[in-house]
Task: inverse folding
């Protein structure tokens, strides 16, 4: 029996979302919200382990009330229990405050053996929250896991680091962050979706964590990093020479331009 | 806060070799240290690393803190963390920099939490404001915007992307101090059972990338691009849709959800240039675009472009470049 916790995040669909390149903002209405794709791999890994060893999979998410739909979605994909952390006090959190809040919620859940996170979120793209949760919980972690070789009292996992494959063994409790290579997440069946629709999603506010957490560490207050400004990068500095005409002619002009610019000498 | 002074660069080693990103961080670190009138130090953990420690001085470190011993030969997460946290508490640098490598992005967050400070991920620029605070610049939302981030706690910590900062020229005459520290060992909990090199294409390291997009009609046609890439010992890349369709492996995918690349030359063939693709390649030194559609966004970021069919242009380009150089 193994108790697994999977922290997840609701994100905009980054492959479809439109950007206002003038203002440097994301038009969230242009794309639907979904579970962070890497978190689906984390959830799938957790469900496969549960199917083999028995136990429970609990998903937790910190976000606005509408993130409930994503937590509910995890129940249709094999999670047994879903908890949404929702409170204004959690808002504006950087990775330090986010990881603290999630780690506090994991503590409140009680006994756990394994925490599985996606390697990063597609919107924040930091990859920091997983290892940070492990540090708050005082447990080891392995990041960038692409395969689970052995699951028993000890876990043996494959970790990919820039072309090196490490085989790493750990006892439990353990946190891993997984890459997309680890599995192909299953699609929920209609019956699973119907069942999940009726399930109860627990919501916890800041007060619900008071026994396990220091509330001054939540949200903006607990966040040492601050966004100072945002700029939209310009493509100035690019030559922008575009050639039109016959293939022979345009190619000849391109090769000459590359030669004159020293580009070809630089790479041969 | 004023107790904290100086910069510290985490020097990453793999197989006893310093990762080049560490030299880049020393280059940038030196520049910031000068502006802050502060010291630049570096911390190196490994086994038999005395010679490599000197290299850190040649590349700009004033002091190197060396933790040397067999248990530190490989990335030993909890022992690396334990010794670095103790060192930072002792030396109190106001800025600590890590390479945004897999190792740096795994280790950095744990150290930040242990020190209860902020960490900014995957920065591509660093600056100092009028009050001497670090300004950390990182791409956000698929690289479509740049976020400027400041940290209110000390040390200010960042991971910095490989191949964006300039290393200084190696100066073997440069003097500095190597301080050998006692290694304190804690229970590592994790055991490395085996380590092997995988033979995957490392597109992130390539100097020349020739990429294909929806303009390609068949998977076999990547060979046309390979022909051009081969002239420069280059690598073939791809936009996401072709990877999703199984035409080429994910290790070739360039873009937001694939690889971020910074080659000397990036040649985009039949790629329209979605924001998600641009996020992965806009750091190239020179961008060449070939596309039938003159309004394709890729032309907006290109140095040189040809409006035309890649099936006509790419073979021409290959033979003309061959022709010019065989003369």
Result:
């Amino acid at each position: 029996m193994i108790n697994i916790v999977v922290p997840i995040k609701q994100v905009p669909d980054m492959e479809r979302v439109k950007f206002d390149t003038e203002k440097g903002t994301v038009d969230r209405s242009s794309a639907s919200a979904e579970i962070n794709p890497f978190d689906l791999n984390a959830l799938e890994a957790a469900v496969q382990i549960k199917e083999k060893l028995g136990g429970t999979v609990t998903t937790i998410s910190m976000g606005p009330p509408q993130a409930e739909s994503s937590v509910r979605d995890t129940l249709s994909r094999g999670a047994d229990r879903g908890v949404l952390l929702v409170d204004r006090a959690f808002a504006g959190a950087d990775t330090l405050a986010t990881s603290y809040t999630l780690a506090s919620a994991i503590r409140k859940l009680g006994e756990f053996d394994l925490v599985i996170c996606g390697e990063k979120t597609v919107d924040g793209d930091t990859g920091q929250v997983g290892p940070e949760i492990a540090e708050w919980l005082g447990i080891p972690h392995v990041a960038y896991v692409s395969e689970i070789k052995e699951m028993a009292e000890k876990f043996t996992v494959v970790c990919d680091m820039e072309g090196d494959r490490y085989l790493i063994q750990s006892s439990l409790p353990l946190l891993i962050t997984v890459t997309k290579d680890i599995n192909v997440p299953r699609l929920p069946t209609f019956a699973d979706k119907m069942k999940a629709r009726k399930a109860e999603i627990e919501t916890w506010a800041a007060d619900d964590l008071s026994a396990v957490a220091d509330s001054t560490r939540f949200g903006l207050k607990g966040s040492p990093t601050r966004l100072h400004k945002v700029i939209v990068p310009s493509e100035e500095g690019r030559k922008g020479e575009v050639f039109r005409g016959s293939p022979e002619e345009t190619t000849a002009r391109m090769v000459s331009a590359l030669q004159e610019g020293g580009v070809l000498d630089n790479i041969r | 806060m004023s107790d904290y002074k100086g910069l510290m660069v985490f020097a990453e080693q793999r197989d006893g070799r310093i990762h080049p990103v560490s030299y880049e961080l020393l280059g940038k670190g030196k520049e910031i240290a000068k502006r802050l009138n502060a010291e630049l130090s570096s911390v190196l953990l490994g086994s038999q690393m005395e010679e490599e420690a000197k290299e850190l001085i040649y590349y700009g470190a004033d002091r190197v803190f060396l933790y040397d011993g067999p248990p530190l030969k490989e990335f030993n997460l909890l022992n690396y963390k334990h010794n670095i946290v103790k060192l930072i508490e002792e030396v109190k640098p106001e800025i600590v920099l890590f390479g945004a490598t897999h190792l740096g992005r795994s280790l950095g967050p744990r150290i930040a939490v242990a020190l209860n400070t902020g960490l900014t991920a995957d920065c591509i620029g660093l600056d100092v404001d009028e009050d001497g605070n670090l300004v950390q610049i990182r791409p956000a939302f698929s690289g479509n915007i740049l976020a400027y981030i400041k940290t209110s706690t000390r040390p200010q910590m960042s991971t910095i992307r490989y191949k964006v900062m300039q290393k200084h020229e190696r100066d073997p005459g440069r003097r500095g101090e190597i301080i050998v520290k006692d290694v304190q060992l804690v229970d590592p909990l994790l055991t490395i059972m085996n380590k092997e090199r995988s033979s995957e294409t490392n597109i992130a390291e390539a100097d020349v990338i020739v990429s294909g997009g929806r303009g390609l009609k068949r998977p076999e046609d990547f060979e046309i691009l390979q022909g051009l890439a081969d002239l420069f010992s280059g690598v073939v890349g791809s936009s996401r849709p072709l990877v999703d369709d199984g035409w080429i492996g994910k290790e070739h995918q360039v873009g937001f959800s694939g690889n971020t690349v910074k080659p000397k030359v990036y040649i985009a063939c039949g790629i329209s240039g979605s924001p998600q693709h641009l996020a992965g390649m806009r750091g190239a030194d020179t961008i060449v675009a070939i596309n039938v559609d003159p309004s394709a966004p890729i032309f907006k970021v290109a140095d040189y472009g040809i409006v035309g069919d890649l099936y006509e242009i790419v073979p021409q380009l290959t033979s003309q470049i061959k022709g010019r150089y065989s003369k």
Notes: Chain A touches chain B through 80 residues (CB under 8 Å). The helical segments of chain A are 37-53, 68-76, 95-109, 129-137, 190-198, 247-260, 263-267.
